[in-house]
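ok so for the tutorial part 2 we go from a plain amino acid sequence to predicted structure tokens. step 1 is just haveing the sequence, like this:
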Amino acid sequence: MNQPILSVLVPAYNEEAGLGRSVELILAKLAELGVSAEVLIVDDGSRDRTPAIADEVAARHPQVRVFHHPANRGIGGGFVTGAAQARGEWLILIPADLALDLDELRKYLDAAPLADVVVGARSDRRDYSAFRLFVAWVNIRLIQLLFGMKLRQFNYISMYRTEVLRRIEIEYWRSAFFHAEILIKAARLGYRLVEVEVCYAPRASGRATGARPQLIARTVGDMLRYWRRCWFAAEDRKATN
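step 2 — the prediction. this is what the tokens look like for a chain of 241 residues:
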């Protein structure tokens, strides 16, 4: 196929219940929007039928490609694989549980001409527990405070020019901080970050894993490690001027 405009990355870990339907819905929406696109499924070491379902979908649709991780690497590992393999001008990650109203894809595409990264700000968190709401609030405030970022959210769905991703080394892909890491580094390289408000779609199948204590601890640790590096680098620059 010719070089697509958009690469849609679908990381999948034990998503046998909904993966096939989700990819079909994504393909239908892309066709409706008239977007030249590919879909990249990254099977992240799944232990159920996800790998077989992904291969079956790819066999039916030439614009779908599948990559299999031999072991689970997390959503960040899936993102790194997708970013390396993407052929499109733009890359967007859409979770296998479709945590995005697909009608909102148009907002990302409409914002693209004036942006290098289109940052989605979800409209609500109605399926969040009080604990997850607190964790999300702390995460946002810390990133705003430590890195001077003005965005309202950092961990939802963004759409990136692939050339931006090629210029950024994603170091903290083992935690959820990688989302913010990309935005922080893109802003510091002078790229245009444009925020759009989009509607969230609650998970219909599978199991969410984003609130695990181990992942939260690693995310906070990575955030502080990166901030410390940035702080020391700034101090070194002051000392040499």
